[in-house]
Amino acid sequence: MAVRIRMQRRGSKKRPFYAVVAADSKMPRDGRFLEKLGTYDPRKEGDKVRLEMSRVDHWIRVGAVPSDCVAGLLKRAQGAGSQSTGV
Predict the structure, then answer these.
(1) Distances in Å between the alpha carbon of 16 and those of 22, 24, 63, 78?
(2) Does any domain span residue 86?
(3) Is 85 contained in some domain?
(4) Could you tell me if 46 and 69 are in contact, meaning their C-beta atoms sit under 8 angstroms apart?
(5) Which pLDDT score, from 0 to 100, does residue 87 have?
(6) Half-sphere exposure of residue 6: CA atoms within 13 angstroms, side-chain side
(7) How does DSSP classify residue 57?
(8) pTM for this structure?
(9) How far is Cα 4 from Cα 86, in angstroms, rounded to an integer?
(10) Of the candidates 52, 67, 75, the residue with the CA atom closest to the CA atom of residue 6
(11) How far apart are CA 82 and CA 70, in angstroms?
(12) In the 3-class helix/strand/coil scheme, how is 41-53 assigned residue by residue?
């Protein structure tokens, strides 16, 4: 099973909200996932990204590959020193 860390779209029409999840690469974008790792809200001011960095690191250590968008979010979160919990 190839695991990807990717964004799952939530929210209503024209009000996007994303969940960052670890999912099997063969599952659909908004389908079944293994674990929810955080959230991303592009409409919010300030803290747009909330990630459980310990769980993200775990999934990367066991071979999960982040998507291009999630890789950018990870860079931004690590640059800001985000260690969010309780997601």
Answers:
(1) 19, 23, 29, 23
(2) no
(3) no
(4) no
(5) 45
(6) 18
(7) H
(8) 0.82
(9) 22
(10) 67
(11) 14
(12) CCCCCCCCEEECH
